[in-house]
Amino acid sequence: LSAFITHAERTIGTLPLLTPAEHQQLITDWNQTEQPIPDRCVHELIAAQAKERPEAIALIYQATSLTYRELDNRVNQLAHHLRAQGVQSGERVAVCLARSAELVIALLAILKVGGTYIPLDPTYPAERLRFILADADVSLLIATNATGVMDIHPTVRVLDLVGDRVQINTQPLHSPTPLLPHSPTPLAYLIYTSGSTGTPKGVPIRHHSLTNLLTSMAQVPGMT
């Protein structure tokens, strides 16, 4: 009502509906969400935990339980094997594995060699998997015979975690070098949309965004 009287020449649509204090609260105060984010990638944060508390439990899946030291060792071995397979920094590696400890190890190993991972759901139709592999320009596919996708794309090389287990287990336990440099630019992973409104599109997620997500989850709901 004050605005009507004070600014009679203005149209209704341009009149303020909030007081200055309400505007400050809604636009500024409630959006003060800035938080310090570690200047490290996720695989580096895991490696740091392996040094600080190596015997603490890092991962549990069904009957499998790994400490931070065990997890980091297995990640390092797979990372060395990926390098032996020719995976270089910046390359895209698809992962088609069921939920398991091996899935987590594979994702971290790809990040550790500077690669970008593309997650594939083993239950997806073959046509969708082939499309993603081609569209993402994948250099390697990590899978097992159990997922049934070993021959899903004729030109994509496949790393079989079961068939290559002996070679993986003989790799060094230390981190491969050089590691991915500290930078917010390199991509951590590429996630594809459902395609319900058109052709599926790959959405690039940077390392900085992934670290930001996990940092926020440490506050709500309280991931420790």
How would you describe the overall organization of this protein?
With 224 residues, this protein is an alpha/beta fold. Helices cover 36% and strands 16% of the residues. The protein is built from eight helices and eight strands, in the order αααββαβαβαββαββα. The chain has helices at 2-6, 20-28, 42-52, 68-84, 101-112, 126-135, 165-169, 207-217, and strands at residues 57-61, 64-67, 92-95, 116-119, 140-143, 157-160, 187-192, 202-206. The chain has a four-stranded parallel beta sheet, with helices on one face. It has a two-stranded antiparallel sheet with strand order 1-2. α5 links the parallel β3 (92-95) and β4. It is elongated and about 80 Å long. It starts with a helix and ends in a 7-residue tail after the last helix. 28% of the residues are buried.
Entry keywords:
224 residues, alpha/beta, two-stranded antiparallel sheet, 8 strands, elongated
Q: Helix amount, in percent?
A: 25-40%
Low-confidence stretches: none
Order of helices and strands: HHHEEHEHEHEEHEEH
* N-to-C span: 51 Å
In this structure, how is the largest beta sheet organized?
4 strands, parallel
Our estimate of the beta-strand percent is: 15-25%
Gross geometry:
elongated
